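Technical note accompanying the year-one report. For the benefit of new consortium partners, we illustrate the data format agreed upon in the data management plan: each record pairs a sequence with a structure-token string. No post-processing was applied to the example shown here.
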Amino acid sequence: MTTGPIYGRNIAITLPRGKTIYWTAYAQSAGAQFVEIRDTANKVIVSKASAGNTGRGGEAKFGEGSFVAEDANNTYYVSIGVNNGASWEKVLYSYDELVFNGVVKFGNYIFGGEDGTDNDFNDTNLNLHWYDNLG
């Protein structure tokens, strides 16, 4: 189920403690896109900005990586904006999971950011996912 559009600063999400979270950020905009993830102690976990000018007709990856979810509250805050957080986008997002025998085997958040007025929500794309077991 899609949530939004909502204000793109400090979107609260739940990530399972102890799991490795993989993230990838893409931009498709002339503007410099920005994504940030913080924990409940306001510690920056991910902070990445694009160079902008990615143009139309294709997206450019501007960040990827992983981190271990260690927040005691399992809560994180995602922010999606432009120009290193000078302003925040409108965001649509969704969470999905694959469950087997009552256990979440794969979880995934996808975020689409809108930095202007055309409501295409393709200016920033952020994906976060994890697995129950690695290896």
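Partners are asked to follow this layout when depositing records. Residues 2-131 form a domain with the Jelly Rolls fold (CATH 2.60.120.400).
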